[in-house]
Design a protein that fits this description.
The complex is a heterodimer of chains A (300) and B (258).
Chain A (H helix, E strand, L loop, with lengths): L4 E3 L2 E3 L3 E3 L21 E3 L16 E4 L2 E4 L7 H14 L4 E6 L4 H11 L6 E5 L10 H4 L2 H14 L4 E4 L7 H10 L4 E4 L3 E4 L1 E2 L4 E2 L5 E5 L4 H14 L4 E4 L5 H10 L3 E4 L2 H4 L3 H15 L14
Parallel strand pairs in A: 3-16, 4-7, 7-8, 8-9, 9-10, 10-15, 15-16
Antiparallel strand pairs in A: 1-2, 5-6, 6-14, 11-14, 12-13
Helix pairs in contact in A: 2-4, 4-5, 5-6, 6-7, 7-9
Chain B lengths: L3 E14 L2 E7 L1 H4 L7 E5 L9 E4 L2 E3 L4 E7 L3 H7 L6 E8 L13 E7 L4 H9 L3 E8 L14 E6 L6 E2 L2 H8 L5 E5 L2 H13 L3 E5 L15 E3 L11 E3 L6 E3 L6
The chains are: A alpha/beta (300), B alpha/beta (258).
Chain lengths: 300, 258
């Protein structure tokens, strides 16, 4: 049985990776999960300098989901390279670094710095809804998506994944813009902008007022968008958005994703990633699927 | 062994006061490692509620491997827990967080243990395990719970907002009324209480440890939801944001800012 998939020349042992921001740099979850068993670890966003993030509360539970407004708190690329990267290198998994910035120059600074490091792929976060500058501002205008993709591609030594925002009218326009800019892979979807009001306190549940909605509540939207994008572009897609089980992961693959990211599920069950991998193998046995690649985009 | 998530059995459930419940859980894998001031994540059986509820460890029976939580119904998740009966299954993860430094209240030291409301439960396991002299100050709105269980460990002073027991007012009012002196303070309770204890301890140069609370998601230090402002740089991001779930929940008073 083959679980290996190929993303822009990078071969993953299996299609299951972690969604940026839900898994740190893997250290905390390594107490629960053997990182060697993951297709890839996608790190929390890394900026050129440390970011403080948003005020608390940063998180709120919603029906079948959660809203977060962490605001990309991170230690910056120097500490990441010195401390987190050597930790991840100990494992037989691919390392994908999520890159965040406020300006094009910020993104390029990180991309350039990482170009000399043992990083397998770069995921460019142009879709964080929780920061005022950068983030989503780049991800909601197709011209900006294409322009930043082109810029990043000039400096990147590793394949570039553009992480798209679902907070747009037509996801295919953004997917095509990233492809036109030279993106090697798309990753989708980031969180949907949401809001929760605490009626007892009569206040916003998260200090940022709005936050990114994730979890199973958004999965049907994510599957639809992955399907639409897969029909519109030729580059591979990493699908994510509310994957809790192997069946959820397979839905994304059948819709056209080559790989999947598990995010919020890690908070519900720290063993979620490896349980999903095991469940996908069971599915392949049950339906006599020899190669996971047979399932990619199989529903049309 | 480290943190572990287990599906285990409820041993008993008792109502202690209006909306306040005590649950004993069979959890040897966790009690073997647990320290006073640590907490567990409790997961609901309702798949529409994704996030675990962080609840402090009130007491452990190390020999039997039993763990006790005392919690207040704060929403639908804790409401669900309150209906669990002996023999029911419960999903928990732990032990989480750092816990109180027992050496700070070792023999020869005079410790003041201050609990406010649902911050009282973790002080019980601490009272049981501190080798120094202990005095307890427990603050309530009105209805008392757990207070009698502290009596074997030292003098226990009460404060109630309603004035129905002990000092009318808060824990600081009780400390002043009784002129309580100490070498070290350990406290857990609502933020305004912790804020005034911090000010009191800094002013009087008393070593002081506060157990903090913040909305959490992962509970293990990965998601950076539950941070608090810290005077020192945090080890994760170096941005003066310590993680309550991993770097805490117990912090030195001078380490945190409100």
């Amino acid at each position: 049985m083959n679980m290996k998939v190929n993303l822009a020349g990078v071969e993953l042992n299996n299609p299951v990776m972690t969604a940026s921001g839900t898994f740190g740099s893997g250290e905390e979850y390594s107490e629960f999960v053997d990182l060697n068993r993951l297709g890839a670890v996608v790190t929390k966003g890394v900026a050129s300098i440390p970011w403080t993030g948003n005020p608390t509360p940063r998180i709120a539970e919603t029906y079948g989901g959660m809203i977060n407004a962490i605001g990309l708190q991170n230690p910056g690329m120097d500490i990441f390279i010195e401390r987190d990267l050597p930790f991840l290198k100990k494992y037989d998994t691919k390392i994908i670094v999520n890159v965040c910035g406020k300006t094009t120059e910020d993104y390029i600074e990180v991309v350039e710095r990482l170009s000399h490091e043992p990083v397998d792929m770069l995921e460019i976060n142009i879709s964080c809804p929780n920061v005022k500058e950068g983030g989503i501002a780049f991800g909601q205008d197709p011209k900006a998506v294409e322009a930043i993709t082109k810029e990043v591609k000039k400096y990147a030594k590793q394949p570039v994944i553009m992480k798209l925002s679902p907070n747009v009218t037509d996801i295919t326009v953004m997917a095509k813009a990233a492809e036109a800019g030279g993106a090697d892979v798309l990753s989708m979807i980031n969180t949907l902008t949401g809001m929760k009001i605490d009626v007892n306190r009569r206040a916003f549940a998260v200090a940022n007022k709005t936050g990114g909605l994730s979890g199973p509540a958004i999965k049907p939207i994510a599957v639809r968008m992955v399907y639409q994008a897969a029909c519109a572009v030729r580059i591979p897609i990493i699908g994510m958005g509310g994957i809790m089980t192997a069946e959820d992961a397979l839905e994304f693959i059948l819709a056209g994703a080559t790989a999947v990211s598990v995010g919020t599920a890690n908070f519900v069950n720290p063993y979620a990633t490896t349980e999903i991998i095991a469940g996908m193998k069971d599915y392949m046995v049950k339906y006599q699927i020899e190669d996971i690649n047979e399932l990619i985009g199989a529903v049309r | 062994m480290g943190k572990i998530k287990i599906t285990t059995t409820v041993l008993s459930q008792d109502r202690l006061a209006d909306g306040v419940y005590s649950m004993w859980i069979d959890a040897k894998e966790i009690t073997d490692q647990a320290k006073p001031g640590q907490f567990i994540s409790v997961y609901t059986g309702d798949s529409s509620k994704l996030l675990p509820r962080p609840i402090s460890i009130c007491e452990t029976n190390q020999n039997k491997g039993h763990l006790r939580i005392v919690y207040r119904i704060a929403g639908e998740g804790t409401e669900e827990f309150s209906h669990y009966k002996a023999g029911d299954q419960v999903i928990i993860m732990g032990p989480l967080g750092n816990g109180f430094p027992l050496e700070a209240g070792a023999s020869g030291k005079k410790a003041l243990l201050i609990g406010g409301g649902i911050g009282i439960p973790p002080m019980l396991e601490l009272a049981k395990n501190l080798s120094g002299t202990k005095q307890m100050v427990l603050g309530y709105r009105d209805e008392l719970f757990l207070n009698e269980e502290f009596l074997p460990y030292g003098d226990t002073f009460l404060a109630t907002e309603s004035g129905s027991a002990g000092t009318r007012g808060n824990v600081m009012d009780a400390i002043r009324e009784h002129g309580l002196q100490s070498d070290v303070i350990f406290a857990c309770g609502p933020t305004p209480m912790l804020k005034s204890i911090r000010a009191y301890a800094l002013e009087n140069q008393i070593e002081c440890y506060l157990s903090m609370e913040e909305k959490m998601a992962c509970g293990i230090g990965a998601c950076l939801a539950c941070v608090c402002k810290s005077s020192e740089k945090d080890e994760h991001s170096m941005v003066h944001n310590k993680r309550v779930c991993k770097d805490g929940p117990v912090f030195k008073a001078k380490e945190v800012e409100f």
